[in-house]
Amino acid sequence: MHASAEPDAVAALYASHHGWLHALLHRRLGCTETAADLAHDAFLRLLVTPRRFDSFQGTRAYLSRVARGLCVDLWRRREIERAWLEALAAQPEATAPPAEHHAMVIETLCQMDAMLASLPRRVADAFVLAQVRGLTYREIAARLEVSERMVKKYMARAMLHCALLEAELDEAAA
Q1: Disulfide engineering: 25 pairs with which of 35, 57, 98, 159, CB 3.0-4.6 Å?
Q2: What is the distance between the alpha carbons of residues 138 and 142, in angstroms, rounded to a whole number?
Q3: Could you tell me the residue ranges of all domains in the chain?
Q4: For the chain, what is the total number of helices (H) and then of strands (E)?
Q5: Residue 4: what are its φ and ψ, rounded to 5°?
Q6: Whole-angstrom distance, CA of residue 12 vs CA of residue 114
Q7: Among 149, 158, 145, residue whose Cα is nearest residue 117
Q8: What count of other Cβ atoms lies within 10 Å of the Cβ of residue 90?
């Protein structure tokens, strides 16, 4: 089936593939509601990002790949949320943020996780050791078994990445 991201074409793709995609996601996730949400998200991507498919199999391969990525994102988000709830449970109740901030904190943590995942491993490690753990460049260099000069390069790369992401977010908000 030839299709692009035009609404009629996406509607035809939806009619042809939604049931299959929902079943695939349901088998992976074991939850029909979550499978429905992710299937919906997969088809939204077709509306947002135009695509052409030259075959039935090509369409299914694309949808399967998108579904896999959406599942990974969901599992990562759940892991982040679990870690956040564990961290909250370990804090005295008086220091815990208000419940209405929960979604905002989880979203911020997910964005930070995505930013760190987009960096090379050592750059991300150096950034976390400096920003979260408060280690000096000398301590980071010893832990990563690199020179202080290399830690400075890692940090410069991480900071540039943060600045570029901030610029993208500012541009998207404008």
Answers
A1: 35
A2: 6
A3: 7-86, 118-173
A4: 7, 0
A5: -125, -170
A6: 33
A7: 158
A8: 7
Strands (E) in the chain, as ranges, are none
Give the model confidence (pLDDT) of 51-96 as tens digits: 888 888 889 999 999 999 999 999 999 999 998 888 888 877 767 7
> With b meaning 16 or more CB within 10 Å and e meaning fewer, what string describes 41-75?
bbbebbeeeebebeeeeebbebbbebbeebbeebe
The reply to whether CATH 1.10.10.10 applies to domain 118-173 is: yes
Q: Based on C-alpha coordinates, what's the Rg of the chain?
A: 21
Tell me the residue type at 36.
A
Round to whole Å and give the CA distance between 136 and 130: 6
pTM: 0.68
* Nearest to 52, CA basis, from 13, 24, 14: 13
Per the structure block, which two tokens stand in for 73?
């994102």
Pairwise CA distance, residues 131 & 73, whole Å: 24
**Residue 91 one-letter amino acid:** Q
Q: Which amino acid is at 37?
A: D
